[in-house]
Amino acid sequence: MENPKILLVDDEQDIIDLIRYNLEKADFEVHSASNGKEAIRIARKVQPDLILLDVMMPEMDGMETCIQIREQAELKNTLIAFLTARGEDYSQIAGFDAGADDYITKPIKPRVLVSRVNALLRRKASLTKPEKKKSAKGIMIDKDRYIVVKNGEELTLPKKEFELLSLLMSQPGRVFTRESILSSVWGNDVIVGDRTIDVHIRKLREKLGEHYFKTVKGVGYKFND
Amino acid sequence: MENPKILLVDDEQDIIDLIRYNLEKADFEVHSASNGKEAIRIARKVQPDLILLDVMMPEMDGMETCIQIREQAELKNTLIAFLTARGEDYSQIAGFDAGADDYITKPIKPRVLVSRVNALLRRKASLTKPEKKKSAKGIMIDKDRYIVVKNGEELTLPKKEFELLSLLMSQPGRVFTRESILSSVWGNDVIVGDRTIDVHIRKLREKLGEHYFKTVKGVGYKFND
DNA sequence: CATCAAGTTAAGTGAAAGTTAACATTTCCG
DNA sequence: CGGAAATGTTAACTTTCACTTAACTTGATG
Question: Is residue A224 a contact partner of residue A174, using CB atoms and an 8 Å limit?
Fold first, then answer.
């Protein structure tokens, strides 16, 4: 895996600088936000492995932010750790209620921070559960085995086709815009031509059947259910 | 069993001498290291039953060393106990997070140390169960005897090949990414070239048969079931 | 019926995997 | 101890095939 991504949320720039420095030294990819709203936006974009969240923040506090993050399906594998001043033990309890995975007390000791973060990420890795299988209308998709089963017949799709199908089947019936398809399957920074998606859709239609994939002109595609 | 092996890691020679004297008197085979890197090297070599690890060390501290040791598959049966100054209670928490099995507070009292070590080793002995045998499609793998049986024919595979096969067979059909293969078979800190996994896969294919190992381009490998 | 999004096709490209031999390292034995 | 054998890793080269593109066609829609 490339370096683990950490999103750091705190309204004090000093703290951000301190923590960022130490985490970057330990080879993490660090992103930061100074309030809850920004945090959620960035979290959705970069899909961090771990979010370090200050409890005390103006406007939307850490607790509220945590709850909102936990409501994002796409972030359910993200760990959340609270940064709390020692003695605010109420925060800790309420924090776990809000869906936090750990808390780290201030003042931050760099060494402790880094080993704590490492321990958390290790825990996350070992928790990697088998992926759930998605199925609809005679098609089942198994991410662990990287295969698609159509009426009992096993197919092995190439990576991009598999990911595209996964995406569309993640919410059958829902239309995914070309834009959102590009950003989930190809990534935000990759630039590919207009016809690339079409070609992949075509391959899926060839392999699985025309009718599963509905074109919504001017918008995108959806998996028919 | 011959005398239990203990690896002692501390940067202060005095402490090493003291502990070594007492442990040797109690009939243990004692090895020592004065820093984390050396510790890992020796641990891999002598496969100690127990590692006594000082928390406070220059360069790589005990916590970090512990984490790295825990990442070595071959050392997963090794016990790790921290040596910590009384009152550093943060260390204890973080230490268990890092994968420690016990901690012993300084200053060291020889009698306490020896009985603590004995207790730990007793615990270990009772925990070491015979490994389970895995089998699938005419191949059975016996971790205790370190052999692979293919249609009744016994093969002895070299370590890396054996571990790679073990991993893939631990969940037949499931795709393991190159990343996860590297981290379980080689360890997270070892850097080996891109083609190393391929070569080992090739050897397995040669010895066991092409069809058992399926390449999933851009993703990884799986054991075919 | 003009326009433009989407479909189709085949070919080109490049990244990932395969292969091989050589080199390095460790282990094994006489 | 010293040389041989086994193992692990790398480097260099080849092969493969997934992906993208370009160029063209189709067809929906206002």
Answer: no
